Amino acid sequence: MAELWKSGDVTLRVDPQVLFAKAAEGAKVLAEMRRSFEEMQRLASASASYWKGEAGEQHRSSCARCQETAQEVFARLQEHVDELRPMGEAYEEAERAAQAEAETLSSDVII
């Protein structure tokens, strides 16, 4: 299990800094996936100059059909990446609010 982040009685299963790091890592990996896919598409299109005939056309057509699916996958992955940073910010804000509230309480009261 991942290391827990603890503060007072609150335990988060993920440190907000880990969320920020994973968002950055996810964005980097996603950008590389997009570049690789674009390069594959470029190479498939360029094959028209030397790969003639039905097999070449089917190959290029198959690659073109993958374009829409790949863009949908990339968009969904981007949504996940985009959601990580606000999650970390929400955790940090909740911790700041809880800490501020705790500081207003009397420290000399025993219940």
Question: Describe it for me?
Answer:
- This is WXG100 family type VII secretion target.
- It holds the Pfam family WXG100.
- InterPro entries: ESAT-6-like_sf, T7SS_ESAT-6-like.
- This protein is mainly alpha-helical and 111 residues long.
- The protein has a single domain, classed as ESAT-6-like (Helix Hairpins, Orthogonal Bundle).
- It has helices spanning 16-46, 54-104, and strands spanning 5-7, 10-12.
- A two-stranded antiparallel ribbon has the order 1-2.
- Helix 1 runs antiparallel to helix 2 (54-104).
- It is rod-shaped.
- The model has no long low-confidence stretch (mean pLDDT 88).
Key descriptive features of the protein:
111 residues; mainly alpha; Helix Hairpins; two-stranded antiparallel ribbon; 74% helix; WXG100 family type VII secretion target; T7SS_ESAT-6-like
Break the fold down into its secondary structure elements and pairings.
Layout: E1 5-7, E2 10-12, H1 16-46, H2 54-104
Antiparallel strand pairs: 1-2
Classified in CATH, the superfamily is: ESAT-6-like
Number of strands: 2
Report strand order across the widest sheet.
Answer: 1-2
Main pleated-sheet profile: 2 strands, antiparallel
CATH class category name? Mainly Alpha
InterPro entries: ESAT-6-like_sf, T7SS_ESAT-6-like
Organism: Candidatus Flavonifractor intestinipullorum
Pfam family, one: WXG100
Protein name: WXG100 family type VII secretion target
Gist of the model:
This protein is mainly alpha-helical and 111 residues long. It has two helices and two strands, in the order ββαα. InterPro entries: ESAT-6-like_sf, T7SS_ESAT-6-like.
